[in-house]
């Protein structure tokens, strides 16, 4: 059995989107019949929690990549040599580097070569020389406008790893062994609920907080129970959004517990952020408030029923901006809470109820 390193060095959502590719490397059969199923996942600090939840991963190694992590750590001898020594000591024979269209696999490939990795696969628009043994050319060997899941699978397949028979190619996580059972059981005991997750890592991807709060109010007026989730640094935001009557779980869930909460939800309302992909990984439909700073065809929730909201042709389109470059943030601020309610109802199959209970939201 050989050891294969798979690298996905950025965010939680990106790591989750690499799940099918990881399963292909771990469980798929190569043309020669071999099954190299000892997988080491190399990820960044933001992706480590998600990496621990992915099927097929034998070991997770966290490394703060100086050309991807923001803010970037200094590219010191200690940092780079630490990775080289880890790879050498781990007896890594092969590597598959998963990247998005704006990332290059070549800096990491160089470090892996110095660590003695014999075979490396990646996708690069730049000449790779001796750094890649298998090089895919984006735009030539595969189209750029495709889901990140499909892109990652294509890179794994170029390395010779195909999904095993019976694998549906969707996002999955391992069943959580240690969620906050008391919290999750309490939620489930009170009946169906909608999750609203208002936070986003980048301000340009966030729907305004007061829009979220108004959407929660509308959802409750239509008889839906609402649970608001968020991280430890988002408790003020979740309190605003939850208002006096929605259940506020801001700061109360770790990633495994959040996954359990999302898995039991009827629908999740969120932006282009990690929990959107976590919801997809547990099979829950998503209303996604998606700012077009990156293409929805690549990063929208994959493999679950979804409603995509937001002006995908807005002036911020494809800018990759973290802060909205357009005054007023119109791509998302133009989405009304009423439209979110309608999207939730469509996913639930309750469109007809809106014809007699329609409300008009005024900001």
Tell me the total number of β-strands: 12
Structural class: alpha/beta
How many strands, what sense, and barrel or not for the largest sheet? 6 strands, parallel
What fraction of the residues are assigned to beta strands by DSSP? 5-15%
Q: Determine the fraction of residues in helical runs and give it as a percent range.
A: 25-40%
Order of helices and strands: EHHEHEHEHEEHHEHEHEHEHEHEHHH
**Mean pLDDT across residues:** 92
Radius of gyration: 21 Å
* Silhouette: globular
| Annotation field: number of helices | 15
- Please list the strands of the largest sheet in the order they lie side by side: 3-2-1-4-5-6
What is the CA-CA span between the terminal residues?
61 Å
- Stretches where pLDDT is under 50 for at least 5 consecutive residues are 350-363
Tell me what you see in this structure.
By secondary structure, this protein is α/β, with parallel strands linked by helices. Helices cover 34% and strands 14% of the residues. The protein has 15 helices and twelve strands. It has helices spanning 12-17, 19-27, 48-51, 77-89, 106-114, 148-158, 181-189, 209-221, 235-242, 255-263, 274-281, 296-299, 330-333, 337-348, 354-357; strands spanning 3-8, 38-43, 59-62, 94-97, 119-123, 134-136, 194-197, 226-228, 247-248, 267-271, 286-289, 306-309. The strands form two sheets. The chain has a six-stranded parallel sheet with strand order 3-2-1-4-5-6, with helices on both faces. β10, α11 and β11 form a beta-alpha-beta unit. α8 (209-221) runs parallel beside α9. The longest helix is centred in the N-terminal third of the chain and has 13 residues, at 77-89. It is globular, with a radius of gyration of 21 Å. The termini are far apart. The model is unreliable at 350-363 (pLDDT under 50).
